[in-house]
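Chain A, query sequence.
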Amino acid sequence: MAVARERFLGLGGARVATIDGEVEALAHRTPGVMRYDEVDLRLAAVTAVTTSPVGRNAGLATRLTGDVVAAGALDGAAVAALGMFEQGFYDRVGLGSLGYTDVFTFDPASLRVPRPSRPVVRVTRDDWEDVADLLGRRVRRHGGIALDPPEYARNELDWIEDPLLGLGFRDADGRLSAVAVGKNEDEHGPWDIHLLAYASDDDLRDLLGLLVTMSAQLHRVRMKEPPGVQLQDVLDRPIRFMDGPWTKGAPAPHIAGAWYQARILDLRPCIAARRWPGEELAFDLVLTDPLSERDHGWPGLAGKWSVVVGDPSRVEPGHRGGLPVLTAGIGAFTRLWFGVRPASGLALTADLDGPPELLGTLDRALVLPGPVVPDLPF
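Chain A, predicted structure.
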């Protein structure tokens, strides 16, 4: 683990804070991309924030997180994202919650999918370069993330506790095309799958079929639901399974939570990524941004903007005037633009407001599949 930590720190940029000459807090940033519909946006992934007991409640984590987010913006990232430990803390630097990630625990024998016709291969930590290659070309839908350094895959494998179980498939040319890696608790599971990657939807079907082939001895699998599919569709009598007596004292068969947050850093590429074929929608926007209120070496995005939702969409500084006005915090606006929740819903629960007619039109113009980040536990 110590070697993995050292390697991890070298994969991106880090900021530290000291008290009496001792490092008491750290924030780490790794470059990558995040999918918006069919466009990859440059990403600043905040891959670690940690504070010692000595440094707690001194504002160090907030300051350092703001620093690495601002540094990502200065380096050309269009969006920042992180995995949160709790709702609300990272709102202080303008991040808003992304969509729910669904986690299922199920008996693999209940899967109604065909068994794969090709041979299964073992995947170990020594295969990290093949895993990295697959992560770079795997299926990614709206919200999907890929981090730039290939060595990130090596660290992910190193951080999975033993007994590690990794299985997958290779193409005819020997290239890894699908993989599931995680910790297997004991002989009968659960196999807690931490990393699931596949080059095509057919590869995903074979991965699910692989679980069926293991069901004689493997009684439980725990995995995040892949984007774009609904696992309940391929489970035999899933509602009975969820109500079954085996759940007493065991993990819930289905949990969902928003564990990731994001915020826009550069409005132009993010706005342009939305292509709306309907009638153009123009509105003036007033943004607030907590990073604009602090000195992080980057001005943030607070201010007045003019937005047009169309094909393509576009944004300019300043107000055109005579248009409906939307007011929003940058976190809420990010959630709106990424389709996490509709404008009318965010107006009820988040820092977003506007005329009812504008909110209703935005509900229709920004219909997107909710962004889900199921495949990287940063």
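The chain has a mean pLDDT of 93. The CA atoms of residues 104 and 254 lie 5 Å apart.
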